[in-house]
Structure formats: structure tokens, C-alpha cells
Amino acid sequence: MIKVYTHALHSGIRPSKEFAKKGLAAFAVNVGLKCSHGCTYCSSGSLLRCHEAFRRIGRSPFDGDYAIVDPDMPDKVAHDAARMKRRGMVQLCTTVDAWAPEAKKYELGRRCLEAILSQPGWSVRILTKNASVAEDFDLIERYRDRVLVGLSITGSPDCEAQIAVVEPRASSLAERMRAMKEAHDRGFRTYGMLCPLLPGIGNSAPRVTEMMRFVDACGAEEVFAEAVNPRGPGLKKTEEALRAAGLAAEADAIAAIRHRDAWSGYVREVIQTTQHSMQTLRMLDRLKFLLYPSGLLAKDVEVIRRSERGIVWL
Description:
Blueprint: E1 3-6, E2 14-15, H1 17-21, E3 27-29, E4 32-34, H2 44-48, H3 52-57, E5 66-69, H4 73-83, E6 89-92, H5 101-105, H6 108-117, E7 123-128, H7 137-142, E8 147-151, H8 160-166, H9 173-185, E9 189-194, H10 205-217, E10 220-226, H11 234-244, H12 248-256, H13 260-280, E11 287-291, H14 298-305, E12 311-313
Parallel strand pairs: 1-5, 3-6, 6-7, 7-8, 8-9, 9-10, 10-11, 11-12
Antiparallel strand pairs: 2-3, 4-5
Helix pairs in contact: 4-6, 10-13, 11-12, 13-14
């Protein structure tokens, strides 16, 4: 049973230097502090762990059985969208999901989207793991040139069972793919988000190529990819969940990168795999592999720098 808490956040639309550097958006909107999808590898808790809300409710940001939303976020977003003079692309969302069930209860995704787009000069990049976003395609239809639709694709169809373990309350991979295809069929602008490419699940050459083919068929203007973030307890939780589900090989693959040397090598290899797949598919010009170099070994950095096409150094 998911417990849903509410907490008033201080701002609606805020500048985001980090997401601007990633090439995603100049601004961010988050409808809460924690979503209910329960992705085992989620690193948002590491970013938000000092927030007062967690102290107030007495919960660890790394627990997976609750969510925190701000039901009044659309009003704050509407206020900011009208008053801010500098405008541009807004990421909805960066640390939570605006179409997760608790957000959907308050229609936070739809209402924030409408509040932003009702003002000129704004555009929105949607990122979600929930196919319920398709229920708002009628709204996106009205602003189709100012919205980029992305559903996180973290594996190929043959690893649906593994994805269901590590993303337990997100929409199934098949549901996300159907929503992404519908967005393309309706003529919406789309982009690919293949994050993270988990060891033993999404990092093999055949699976990466299959994911790339899919987002290409959906008209992706850009394709973002990323290695799993090792911060916090995410890798340990992912390993434990896979092992409990009887997926020993996948659990072992995660366990292997919990040490710096192995993690660095995994990052190098997944970059090379992604570059090769996109080069083969003649998509390399659309790749943005998001890379945090801290934690990488010097020898792996040296190899990566020999072929930097498509890499965004952060």
C-alpha cells in the first residue's frame, strides 16, 4: 500500500543549470519530492535527502512505499509562467513523475502542462514512465509544436520481466512503448530517453540497438542515454530486488559494478556500445550520452575521449 503525503513546495518553475547543460531544458518543474513508481535504482533520494519534508514525515528518502506531492503546484506554475520574463524549455519533471498515480489523482501533469503552455514563449519537455500521459494527448494536440514527448525506455521487449522488478509501479514497458508510438502517430514531437542502461538488462548491443530502432521509428529528434547513477543505495536495492525475483544473472551483473573499478569499466563499455549502435543505424548525430566523469578511472576516461561523438560531459 502506497502512502501519499502532501507538502507545499516553494517554487513552481525554476531555472535548472544542470538540465540546461544536459541539453534537456533551461527550466524545471517538479510536482513533488517523491513518486510512487518505486524504481529501485532511483538516485533522487540522494539529491533531496536533506529536504525538510522527509524530516517532517519521519521517513527515509530511500524508502519505496510512499510518495510526496504538492497538490497546489499547478497554481504556482501558472503564477510563474505568467510573471517570468525569461522563458524557454521546461522539463516536466526532473526528480519525480508528473503522471505517477498520486500525481494523476490531482491531474498535476495535465494542469501544470496547461498552465505553462497557456503563456507564450514557453515549451515543455515531458518525461514520464507512465502511459497515463496518453490521456492528455488531447491537450498536447493543441500545442503540438511546443511539446516534446518522451517515455522512458529502459529495456527491450524481451526484458519486460526484469524491468517490472526494478520499476515495480511504473507502467509496463509495453504500455510505455504503445504510448510513445501513439504520440508519434498523432504527429507529436518526440525524443528518446534510454536511462539508465542497466547492466544485465539494457546494456547489451542487441538490446541497445533494438531500443534505438524503436525510438527512431517513433521520430525521436534526440536520443538521451545514461549509465546507472551509483550514488546512494540504488545499486544495492536493485541487486536485492532482482535476486529476490530469481533473476540471479541480472543481480550478479548489478553486484559486479558496485565497486568503482568495475563501474568505470561498465560506463566505458556502455558508451561504446551505444555509439556503435547509433553509428550503425546512422543516428549518431542525435545521441546525447549524459556522462558524469567523477568516479571514472583515468584509463577509462582516456579511452572515452578518443571517440567523444554524442557524449555530453557533465
